[in-house]
Predict the structure.
Amino acid sequence: MLADLAGSKPKSLARAMRYQVYDLPGAQSYADEDDFRAALLAAGHSDQLVDMWRKQLTHWDFAERPSWSSSEPRTDQRRTDIYDLLDLEPVTRKLLEACAPVMKTPPPVVISEQFEPWYRTTTKYGREWYWPAYRNLLSAKGWSDDAVASMDMATDSVVERLSDPSRPEAFQAKGLVVGYVQSGKTANFTGVIAKAVDAGYRLVIVLGGTLNLLRAQTQRRLDMELVGWENILRGASEFESDYADDPAWNQGKFIKFGGQPAALGAFDIVRMTTRDDDYKSLRQGIVALEFEKQQPALPLYDPVNLHRSSARLMVVKKNKTVLGKLVQDLKKIKTPLAEIPVLIIDDESDEASVNTARQKPDAERTAINKKISELLTMLPRAQYVGYTATPYANVFIDPSDSADIFPKDFIVSLERPHNYMGARDFHDLDDDIPEDERTFANSNEKAHVRSVQVDGLDEVDTATLRQAIDMFVLTAAMKLYREERGGLGDGYFQHHTMLIHESSWTLDHREVLGRITKLWWDSDYSGPSGHERLRTLFDNDLAEVSAVRADGHVVPPSFAELQPYIGAAVFRIGGDQKPIIVVNSDKDIETGEADFDKRQIWKILVGGQKLSRGFTVEGLTISYFLRRASNMSALMQMGRWFGFRPGYRDLVRLYIGREQPGTGAKGIDLLRAFEAVCRDEDAFRRELQQYSVLVDGMPQVTPAQVPPLVSQHLPQLKPASPNKMYNAKLVEVRSPGKWLEPTAYPTSAPQLRHNTALWTPTFEQLSTETTRFAYHFPAQSGRHAKDLSPTVHYLTALTGRLAPDEFLDLAEQTKWRAPGEFGPHLEYLRSITRGVGRAVDEWVVLAPQRDKGDQQVRVGSRLITRWDRYRRRDPLFGSISTSRHRSIALRIAGAIGDSKDPNTERFVGERTGAILIHAVVEPGNVASVGADGVIDPGKLVLAFGFVAPASAYPSDNRVVRFTTVNSATAAPIIDFDTEE
């Protein structure tokens, strides 16, 4: 009955039940709502009936603009509409509400080819086992109902796009799941594996990174939360397990099923690898890879065989030799490889898996890529799903290469998890608060970031490093204080770590170890000088930040109250005479020195590559980071300070190099580099979200068209290595009602003089008097949701008007430092200005002016407010306008509602666009402005941003247009013009 409803709008439940039992003698008496309620009451939270209704109701809740409801998705009113159409009694509604509350968090963003729905239709052949168990485990770990439901939906969006494992024709789907650094991607692919094996996938290969420690960490997580106690032991004594020395094993934290799954009507998972052992050639034990068949005459993928066969799971390091052994063993088994439904999960899929050697079609693949390609070729029913937080290398793979890992079928962008501490939490992005008004309460940078200044390649900032170590001791004491005084309980903070990341070179690690060791033993933490340093740091930093950011956790009123915990904290860290662990080889993990699974670790970690990708540094509170990177992906993956920080979010500190020296002429501000990467990441996710909306049931873009959506804010940091950036070119971006502000203005004087001469007439024609504009936001719509009073944005500006052709001429003739950045937007301006697609009648020009006339510059004959702006992402500016400026422009273009201001409303028109123009002087050129406001035009940047009319939608409703590029000859698609 529910399957019948799934393909349509909600309709009378009683009528649907009567229809389903029409030909079933004796069943009619059970086909009523009373019986349905009785079944719900008897069902457990993880019962299949409850699960199916939960999914169906969520599907209707999330439907975009359905014909059967005018209510917004994910609202109580939408759910009421559903219940009304189902014609349910109030008591049934309450029962369903308890089983499946409305999930108001947004769904994952999906860019996908069309696919054939199959998931949930095969359950009649088997029994869901591992997914319900995993879902219950997440709830037991404290996940909220919303978080579990979000995980359910996100994993569904992946599994449903794989091929039906029982499908007669072999089909190979390839996809990519984009998460955040240290945000729970492993939890997601554990859920995907659980659902996939329940559905019939019988060989699961997890590519667990390039390092032993990452592979072992992934194996343990899957064993603990998916494989389970009984599948690990397989009849052996619990003391013979490879986890016998693991505290979590002895504490009963590994999932249990109450018996061997196969004996309980399900199927077993057979491990082909263990935590300590990667995949090894099976030799005489090759039978372990053989799949049993109930009916030998039928293929393995036939449902009769599929759901009675055990699943095999292996977690394999991305190593040429290891993968080679697996390939050779698969060739030896008797089960035809074409019959085996295989799921390949590639963790950190942008590392090692991507073919970086191929510049020409006939070039040899790189080693790991070649082995993955072999697996995909020899296993025609293999499904490939990559997981990463930095997807740029993956989306730049040539989609025409059928043997490669380009995500041709889908890209899923996961939602940022609740309570996750990510890049945005360390930066003040697009915040209009002036520098001198920023506080620990309103500035993320001020609360969590501390600068490290280094003058030369061989210099060190010992004072800041000492302060970072002092903060590590202070926060350790704070954790002990919260355990005892805050009711968290002894052992709540299992780990407390500091990471020092200056270099990837082993010799450098030895030097750092010596330097830190000396600082530690000279610290005098039990004496007056040490206590005085800690007191000052507590009073000036820790206490002030925690007072406004502790989120309900206890904060000592004075250092005197925290002081008794200092000694215990120092003993936890250095009581064994080893306060520092250097992690630059696998032996550090194998010997247990840095194994978070086997012991409590309160230590300072010094590391490089081993700790820069994938591996979770538990309890990380203080980071000291000076290492450079050559591209966005590498830099973002080094952000080990991202993650979940329960009970100590306010204690987290990042000590980061601000003018980090390099081998070239320029240094790099690592904080601003991370900020640029954060902006790139946000822009990519926004683009995916915008283009994920279907148009007439069809996708706007497919995965093959995603590469041009990747942006680049810092020229030193390409999204990925240049040899990975090819295959498509973005021709046009259509952006009705959206603010667009180019920032790649020239740095050469001749080009700046050209732009000044071009735009001066527009400034000359502005009104002689300013107009005071306002936009009144409704209550609780301001920057802080907790604000109860309405927010008002004011703008004082000179005004003017331009005809559509006039603005287009200006835009076409403006010179740029990065010509490609504005090209797609220029194409859009052409499309709405000329020909049959003309969609704009005029442009309103606004030149924001300060009320005080003390900072002005002359443009032509006019004295105009001067705006001092840095090229914060050199050579690109940051935001030139402010949100107060943009609100007025957005209203004039019809992008937001009534301003409640007459001055603003008289400029509004259905086919009117808005342009903001600024006369910008870089701080280094301010001294060149004469007393009369005159400046060399070669030192003046006349900048503009615009909002096209909100009505200027193209007739086909598509917002991007692409053309393809020959991958064998194309240059990187994102680049800067270096010829000036």
Q: What stands out?
A: The two ends are 69 Å apart (CA to CA). The first helix runs from residue 2 to 6.
